[in-house]
């Protein structure tokens, strides 16, 4: 009798354990627990809110058809990382252990994403740092559970160089000046940019380099000097506050009408919020602007539904949030299961249909081979804010770091 | 290099010099009369910029928002200066210079944190009225049209302070106090009250400069630290306590900086510090200061 009771107890334990671990096999109608740990407060608030809206819309659309595989309704669990790594780690752990999530859509801050990555690897939970773009999220300390949905820092820098090289060829640009904040980041980024441009367009020459102090408040002398030099374009590497100060002081000089100012990142969020003040004529880079892919039916449909639900246009961050859930959906469909390890294996090298078009996860590092977009900020009668004109799309495959360099970096890391 | 380009750089030097003059004038006045080396001066200038932003935010529906916000910011900052003088500054008149520097440096840090608490860490941006969004051209050289206003205000402040010191009774008292506060006091003039108003006047000018600065780029934390050193260079070159010296010192710094950016960008700040160091060695009381004060 005692033996029978023990057997029943053991069976019960196994049943309970399988039912309560997020990674167990799927059961009919079992909801899919999806965690969303974003910086809803802190520096990433604005972007995270948009990203959440994109995620929510995708979840609503999929749930309207019964959920993943038509039978696993998605249940969302939302947490605030405060854009801080320690809080991010705490919240993601809690999502995994308490809410039994199978996947986590993560932060705006790369520091948070890098801190969360080993937690997800340890607990075998899928990790989508959907908008944070440090290259190190996928390049080193690799996690097979982490899938990057955004062009990373290397891809963006190379894309900017390739786009400028193309523009130089089209427009006959020969000389440029750089203006970079005089500290470590400014110096190293400027150096990298000049190197990239030299490779992409060997005929381009640096005419002069300006190094304003970090925190400079008076840029007038720099502005008039650059205008006097009449370069074909300016490549700025200014820290955020300095960039605002420079831009605001250069505008009343008619600077941007005279000298192309290239390379600053302007997502749809900035295009909308700074619609009144943003100088037209900036040559800017973006990660996922909706207007670059309205020819893709999925994007057109997304924009229509997003506008209907939120009464605004979707930002890059909303697009990437939306794409993340659909990439997961297609991974689950290929795996024919919601089992995390099966989905992880299915997503390796998978080509997915997204709002940004047909894109592949690179097998080596799970980095989505997504494009970067460089264009000239200009008004468009179709929108109440400026968008890009003459957009150059640099494909992920053309801007990604060579695989050999990644392998070498990982080997160096092991030593 | 074409004449237009050189002239454009010259105009940049004038505007930069005027901004420095507006910050340095109050600093020099307070030191010249009260012998107080106020390291918190630029932080009060920054408070002026934030005040201007706040007034502008409330009034932004009106075309005159910016033009009214600037004097209001100057008055509000002067009120902060008045309270500061009564609560703290008057207690350190007789302290050694290095003690004053430490105390006013602490004050700069306290004000910096107060700014963070009141206005938050977010950068603040004033949208200029359309009339000053375009450049004006002087002999073909472009100039931000707002800087025409900045230059005019700079000269108006210089003339106003000069007139005050030269032709008014209070101006004469202030000038007399520079040389011998004991003698002025012996004549029955209430020196502490005079000092309070001189300090308030100095901070009023700082607030005015801050209000003007608010529409040049964005208002951000830490701006004060980047300008205070240059303001000190200006008053060292011109001579502490000398209004004309501050004006000339500002224009020298502005022009040297501006042309150095054009020809030798890496050395722009170095040149200014070299000039300051040379003045300190050769003529410690500055170009227009008096040896007695040094």
Structure description:
With 415 residues, chain A is an alpha/beta fold. Chain A has 2 domains: 30-151 and 292-370, Response regulator (Rossmann fold), CATH 3.40.50; 154-286, Rossmann fold, CATH 3.40.50. Chain A is 47% helix and 16% strand. Chain A has helices at residues 2-20, 45-63, 85-97, 110-122, 136-139, 153-171, 184-200, 220-229, 240-250, 255-258, 268-273, 297-310, 316-335, 340-347, 396-399, 403-414, and strands at 32-38, 74-80, 103-105, 126-128, 175-180, 205-210, 233-237, 262-265, 283-286, 351-354, 357-360, 372-378, 387-394. In chain A, the strands form 4 sheets. Chain A has a 4-stranded parallel beta sheet, with helices on both faces. The radius of gyration of chain A is 23 Å and the shape is globular. Chain B is mainly alpha-helical and 294 residues long. Chain B has a domain at 21-225. Helix content of chain B is 72%, strand content 3%. Chain B has 11 helices and 2 strands. A two-stranded antiparallel sheet of chain B has the order 1-2. In chain B, helix 9 crosses helix 11 (268-282). The radius of gyration of chain B is 19 Å and the shape is globular. The termini of chain B are far apart. Chains A and B meet through strand 6, helix 8 and helix 9 of A and helix 1, strand 2, helix 5, helix 9 and helix 10 of B.
In short:
The complex is a heterodimer of chains A (415) and B (294). By secondary structure, chain A is of the alpha/beta class.
């Amino acid at each position: 009798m005692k033996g029978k009771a023990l057997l029943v107890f053991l069976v019960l334990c196994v049943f309970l354990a399988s039912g309560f671990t997020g990674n167990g096999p799927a059961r009919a109608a079992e909801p899919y627990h999806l965690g969303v740990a974003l910086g809803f407060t802190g520096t990433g608030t604005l972007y995270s809110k948009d990203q959440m809206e994109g995620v929510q819309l995708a979840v609503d659309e999929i749930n309207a058809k019964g959920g993943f595989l038509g039978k696993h309704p998605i249940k969302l669990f939302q947490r605030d990382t405060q854009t801080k790594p320690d809080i991010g780690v705490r919240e993601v752990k809690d999502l995994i252990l308490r809410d039994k999530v199978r996947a986590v859509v993560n932060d705006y801050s790369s520091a948070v994403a890098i801190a969360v990555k080993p937690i997800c690897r340890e607990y075998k939970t899928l990790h989508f740092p959907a908008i944070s773009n440090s290259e190190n999220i996928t390049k080193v300390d690799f996690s097979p559970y982490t899938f990057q949905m955004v062009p990373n820092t290397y891809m963006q820098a190379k894309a900017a160089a390739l786009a400028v090289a193309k523009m130089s060829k089209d427009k006959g640009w020969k000389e440029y000046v750089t203006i970079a904040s005089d500290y470590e980041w400014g110096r190293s980024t400027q150096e990298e940019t000049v190197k990239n441009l030299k490779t992409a367009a060997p005929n381009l020459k640096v005419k002069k380099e300006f190094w304003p102090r970090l925190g400079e408040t008076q840029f007038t002398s720099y502005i008039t000097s650059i205008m006097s030099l009449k370069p074909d374009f300016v490549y700025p590497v200014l820290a955020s506050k300095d960039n605002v100060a420079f831009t605001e002081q250069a505008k009343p000089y008619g600077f941007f009408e005279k000298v192309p100012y290239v390379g600053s990142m302007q997502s749809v969020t900035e295009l909308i919020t700074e619609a009144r003040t943003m100088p037209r004529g900036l040559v800017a880079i973006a990660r996922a602007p909706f207007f670059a892919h309205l020819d893709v039916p999925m994007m057109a449909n997304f924009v229509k539904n997003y506008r209907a639900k939120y009464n605004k246009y979707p930002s890059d961050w909303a697009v990437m949030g939306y794409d993340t859930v659909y990439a997961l959906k297609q991974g689950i469909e290929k795996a024919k299961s919601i089992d995390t390890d099966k989905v992880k294996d299915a997503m390796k090298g998978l080509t997915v249909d997204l709002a940004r078009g047909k894109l592949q996860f690179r097998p080596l590092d799970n980095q989505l081979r997504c494009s970067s977009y460089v264009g000239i900020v200009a008004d468009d009668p179709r929108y109440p804010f400026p968008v890009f004109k003459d957009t150059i799309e640099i494909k992920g495959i053309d801007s990604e770091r060579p695989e050999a360099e990644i392998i070498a970096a990982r080997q160096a890391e092991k030593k | 290099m074409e004449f237009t380009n050189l002239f454009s750089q010259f105009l940049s030097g004038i505007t930069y010099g005027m901004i420095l003059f507006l910050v340095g004038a109050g600093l020099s006045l307070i030191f010249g009369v009260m012998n107080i080396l106020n390291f918190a001066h630029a932080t009060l200038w920054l408070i002026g910029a934030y005040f201007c932003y706040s007034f502008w935010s409330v009034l932004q529906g009106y075309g005159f928002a910016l033009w009214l916000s600037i004097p209001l910011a100057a008055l509000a900052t002067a009120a902060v200066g008045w309270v500061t003088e009564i609560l703290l500054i008057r207690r350190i008149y007789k302290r050694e210079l290095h003690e004053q520097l430490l105390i006013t440096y602490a004050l700069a840090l306290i004000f910096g944190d107060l700014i963070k608490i009141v206005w938050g860490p977010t950068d603040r941006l004033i949208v200029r009225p359309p009339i000053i969004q375009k450049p004006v051209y002087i002999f073909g050289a472009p100039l931000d049209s707002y800087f025409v206003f900045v230059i005019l205000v700079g000269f108006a402040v210089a003339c106003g302070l000069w007139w005050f010191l030269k032709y008014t009774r209070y101006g004469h008292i202030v000038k007399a106090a520079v040389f011998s506060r004991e003698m002025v006091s012996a004549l029955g003039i209430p020196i502490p009250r005079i000092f309070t108003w001189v300090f308030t006047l100095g901070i009023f000018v700082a607030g005015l400069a801050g209000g003007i600065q608010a529409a040049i780029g964005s208002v951000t934390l830490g701006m004060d630290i980047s300008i205070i050193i240059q303001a000190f260079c200006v008053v060292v070159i011109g001579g502490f306590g000398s209004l004309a010296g501050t004006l000339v010192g500002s224009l020298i710094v502005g022009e040297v900086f501006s042309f150095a950016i054009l020809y030798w960008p890496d050395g722009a700040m170095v040149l200014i510090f070299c000039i300051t160091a040379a003045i300190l060695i050769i003529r410690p009381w500055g170009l227009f200061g008096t040896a007695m004060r040094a």
